[in-house]
Amino acid sequence: MMTFESEYRRQAIRTLREGREEAKSEIAMEASRYRRTFANWFSRMHAVTAPFLGPSNRPMR
After folding, report:
1. pLDDT at residue 57 above 60?
2. Residue 50, C-beta contacts closer than 8 angstroms, at least 6 positions apart
3. Is a pLDDT exceeding 60 seen at residue 1?
4. Its domain of life (predicted)?
5. Is the model's pTM score more than 0.90?
Protein backbone atom coordinates (compact mmCIF):
# COMPACT_ATOMS: atom_id res chain seq x y z
CA MET A 1 0.00 0.00 0.00
CA MET A 2 2.87 2.33 0.75
CA THR A 3 4.31 2.00 -2.75
CA PHE A 4 0.95 2.81 -4.33
CA GLU A 5 0.63 5.98 -2.26
CA SER A 6 4.15 7.11 -3.01
CA GLU A 7 3.73 6.37 -6.74
CA TYR A 8 0.42 8.24 -6.73
CA ARG A 9 2.07 11.16 -4.95
CA ARG A 10 5.00 11.19 -7.41
CA GLN A 11 2.62 11.18 -10.36
CA ALA A 12 0.55 13.99 -8.84
CA ILE A 13 3.65 16.12 -8.25
CA ARG A 14 4.84 15.46 -11.83
CA THR A 15 1.44 16.50 -13.20
CA LEU A 16 1.45 19.68 -11.13
CA ARG A 17 4.96 20.59 -12.30
CA GLU A 18 4.04 20.03 -15.95
CA GLY A 19 0.92 22.14 -15.52
CA ARG A 20 2.93 24.89 -13.88
CA GLU A 21 5.46 24.95 -16.73
CA GLU A 22 2.65 25.06 -19.28
CA ALA A 23 0.95 27.90 -17.41
CA LYS A 24 4.22 29.86 -17.26
CA SER A 25 4.70 29.60 -21.02
CA GLU A 26 1.09 30.61 -21.68
CA ILE A 27 1.45 33.65 -19.41
CA ALA A 28 4.68 34.66 -21.15
CA MET A 29 3.02 34.42 -24.57
CA GLU A 30 0.03 36.48 -23.40
CA ALA A 31 2.31 39.14 -21.91
CA SER A 32 4.34 39.48 -25.10
CA ARG A 33 1.14 39.73 -27.13
CA TYR A 34 -0.22 42.46 -24.84
CA ARG A 35 3.08 44.36 -25.06
CA ARG A 36 2.97 44.25 -28.87
CA THR A 37 -0.69 45.33 -28.89
CA PHE A 38 0.04 48.24 -26.56
CA ALA A 39 3.05 49.33 -28.63
CA ASN A 40 0.95 49.24 -31.82
CA TRP A 41 -1.85 51.19 -30.15
CA PHE A 42 0.58 53.76 -28.76
CA SER A 43 2.27 54.32 -32.13
CA ARG A 44 -1.12 54.72 -33.83
CA MET A 45 -2.29 57.23 -31.22
CA HIS A 46 0.93 59.16 -31.60
CA ALA A 47 0.57 59.19 -35.40
CA VAL A 48 -2.97 60.55 -35.08
CA THR A 49 -2.34 63.14 -32.37
CA ALA A 50 1.16 64.32 -33.34
CA PRO A 51 0.00 66.97 -35.87
CA PHE A 52 -2.21 68.57 -33.21
CA LEU A 53 0.36 68.55 -30.43
CA GLY A 54 3.05 70.49 -32.23
CA PRO A 55 6.76 69.79 -32.01
CA SER A 56 7.96 67.62 -29.19
CA ASN A 57 10.49 68.87 -26.66
CA ARG A 58 12.01 65.41 -26.41
CA PRO A 59 15.20 64.82 -28.38
CA MET A 60 14.96 62.54 -31.38
CA ARG A 61 16.30 59.03 -30.86
Report:
1. yes
2. 56
3. no
4. Bacteria
5. no
* Alpha carbon distances (Å) from 27 to 16, 20, 22, 31, 34: 16, 10, 9, 6, 10
Please give the torsion angle defined by the CA atoms of residues 23, 25, 26 and 27, in that order, rounded to the nearest 10 degrees.
90
Proportion of the chain in helix, strand, coil states, percent, rounded to 5: 85, 0, 15
Q: Is the dihedral of CA 12, 18, 20, 23 positive or negative?
A: negative
CA 44-49-53 angle, 5° bins: 145
The chain-wide mean pLDDT, for the chain, equals 85
